[in-house]
Amino acid sequence: MLSSKNSIMPIQLTSIVNALPDATPFIGPETLEREYQRPFVARIGANESAFGISPKANDAIQNAVNNSGCSWYADPENFELRSLLSQKHKIPLENVCVDAGIDSLLGLTIRMFAEPGTSLITSRGAYPTVNYHANGYGAIIRSVPYKNNHEDTVALTQATHAHKAKLIYLANPDNPMGTCVHPDAIQQLLNELPEDCVLMLDEAYIEFMDTMPSLPVDINDPRLVRFRTFSKAYGMAGMRIGYVMAHKDIVAGFNRIRNHFGVNRLAQIAAAASVQDTHFLAHAKEHVKQGRQRIYDLADSLSLDYLPSATNFVAVNLGNHEIANNLIKSLANSGVFMRKPMVAPQDRYLRIGVGSDDEHRHLESVLIPLMRTASEA
Amino acid sequence: MLSSKNSIMPIQLTSIVNALPDATPFIGPETLEREYQRPFVARIGANESAFGISPKANDAIQNAVNNSGCSWYADPENFELRSLLSQKHKIPLENVCVDAGIDSLLGLTIRMFAEPGTSLITSRGAYPTVNYHANGYGAIIRSVPYKNNHEDTVALTQATHAHKAKLIYLANPDNPMGTCVHPDAIQQLLNELPEDCVLMLDEAYIEFMDTMPSLPVDINDPRLVRFRTFSKAYGMAGMRIGYVMAHKDIVAGFNRIRNHFGVNRLAQIAAAASVQDTHFLAHAKEHVKQGRQRIYDLADSLSLDYLPSATNFVAVNLGNHEIANNLIKSLANSGVFMRKPMVAPQDRYLRIGVGSDDEHRHLESVLIPLMRTASEA
Fold this sequence. Notes:
The structure is a homodimer. The first copy, chain A, is of the alpha/beta class. Chain A has helices spanning 15-18, 29-36, 55-65, 79-89, 102-113, 128-136, 153-162, 183-192, 248-257, 265-275, 278-301, 321-333, 357-376, and strands spanning 42-43, 96-99, 119-123, 140-144, 167-171, 198-202, 224-229, 242-246, 313-317, 336-337, 349-353. Chain A contains 13 helices and 11 strands. In chain A, β5 (167-171), α8 and β6 (198-202) form a beta-alpha-beta unit.
């Protein structure tokens, strides 16, 4: 239990919370800016969008701010947004649940399906927030290695059976590697999944996946929860809004535990405007595609390998994790916020986010001399 | 467990979530608007502010929207806002935790302290969202009656001992009755509280409490968590941002389970601007005071009793709950969104929110004839 000199007595937390470490999934760039006492020039480490939000979303926010949009609670049913998503994905309204971002929805999913001691299967080095929430609800994390920098659907399936797991987490496209797997591999995983196990399919980056089809949307399988977000392609990470598509009984489960008045009203309104703005989405995707190419070209110019990306970031191979770690620090010292995979063997990569033109120019002006110095050392 | 005709098999929820009813804490006004197929003219049922947000907050939002404010995740440490709150309340930074509204913080607190089967003490008819979260984490709700329309700190204390409760919930000022208790009564409750029990002191409406002092801020007692919000006096219910003041070990507990990237960036920025705008706060409080008087005058003109209010709403006595229920429906039919206490004996009251001048005019134009018809019937 937590205790301190100032306490009258130790704080009596639940056994699960008491056992948790004082750890956070990520350190924010603002923490580093306070440490370095200067703002970053290139903020390309959190897979945020450099291409703004839909002009329609912008107008909707402006209009809402002037019309009680800040003062009124959002519709707890998220009806208008869910209706638009229902139309977009051609699924019934009852199969869509909106909440304040994928992180929140991941937590609710784990809470809904994982009794304390339940196993959750993930890939070693996959999204840390899943592990954070799994620990937070007393689930046991069982991880399998990546295979050739891709999440390994066969190993995930095998581990599920071996550990009688109730949950598997798979991000497609994957973060932090930017790779993706074929929908047939996901379908194969589902075919072999036990009846009482749920696949958490995180599709935060799916709008950027342009070389492979995505799994068709079938919301009648009660073992599949698909996570989508307005944080990435729609540029609304700071607004906190995402959704799941799932069997209606799973959506009913979310409705039993979610924070019904937890969505920001401006986010709700902006998301509804964004769904309808296919022009903006195409614009953002094109910018990301160009940005990835610019990172590929940079890596080529430095004779570094990279992984072709299906996301808004590119994993660039530095050869070993010490070089990569040191480079992240040097970059931060030069005004570049970047993150990298945390777990071996992927931790020899940098994860370079697509940024604005200015951010890329700054990155290039910093990275090229740094790499030259490193190779001469 | 949930099941349906369309399911391949029943959904395997955890035992706690499986046992939950398909209930929500409140129905939103938008749901009723869809039902009545017209928007409300007076939205005075959710204790939202009719007086907007601070002009400084408005400027900060506008500036942020134009500068990646929607696209960048908020600082997960909420450092700037916590620093300002720390200065305002003259407490160390480590005693402040910011999150996406009081509802979320209430849920986290229950999760942190209540093992399944733990008793939580509340007042019968107090804030339903507490019960929603208590059920959601498998806690057992034990309730005591209000005493003369006030929360009864003596009965709450006694029930805590009787049920070996780990949590008590007390809202001061109270919602839905608008009454408040003297800080000495809360101090007495704390004096008699078991060492392993935590008081959740919800102070959402504290800025409106102008006839009584509030409990002095002492963050060294590990049995006290104080909840504050930007939803009410600061007019930011739709933004979803609130905070707790508590012992640093409790804040450390929140940091183990909260959604670190869960706060909306515009909300974070607007809240920081609002804290510094004491002029706006005074302006909003004055408007609320005038609005309460207008509701008192309306009640007087209809020869209805009311409770002097320490909040932005007034509980007006209709005599019995059937009359009150019918009136709520008639009001809704006439474009007035209003709620009322849900539990006897307080359910004979209407809870009339302070609105804008137009909203009050509409309310008066509707309520006065309705009451005349009722008294003639």
